[in-house]
Design goal:
This protein is of the alpha+beta class. It is built from 5 helices and 3 strands; from the N terminus they run H-H-E-H-H-E-E-H. Strands 1-3-2 form a 3-stranded antiparallel sheet. A hairpin with a 2-residue loop joins strand 2 (68-74) and strand 3. The radius of gyration is 15 Å and the shape is globular.
């Protein structure tokens, strides 16, 4: 992937790599709002409105960055949960909360 000013993803900043697609942001929003439980890829798809294929494509990267993890298996289905033990997740949650409080100032009239 080429981002303006960067030759490949390894040259990109951390936010560009983390939020490589809008789907990643939607998945993280979902998990931040529903952090108490674990969910299958199918449930995440249904609750976010994203296709199952999109969820299935993005989950490995979110696991690699340890933002989510496979908490258990039910039959052949993996269940995923937000990694609230990771300090970065706590900071991300705080960041989202701070931004949501600024929203009226950010939105255009």
């Amino acid at each position: 992937m080429i981002v303006e000013g960067y030759s490949d993803q390894s040259d990109c900043g951390i936010l560009t790599r983390l939020f490589s697609s809008r789907a990643v942001a939607q998945i993280l929003d979902f998990f931040l709002d529903h952090k108490e439980f674990d969910y299958s890829a199918n449930e995440i798809s249904q609750k976010t409105g994203l296709s199952f294929r999109t969820i299935f494509r993005e989950i490995p990267d979110l696991e690699r960055t340890q933002l989510i993890y496979s908490s258990r298996r039910i039959g052949k289905t993996s269940m995923y949960k937000l990694n609230t033990d990771l300090n970065a997740v706590l900071l991300l949650e705080k960041f989202v909360l701070e931004l949501s409080q600024l929203r009226p100032f950010i939105e255009k009239p």
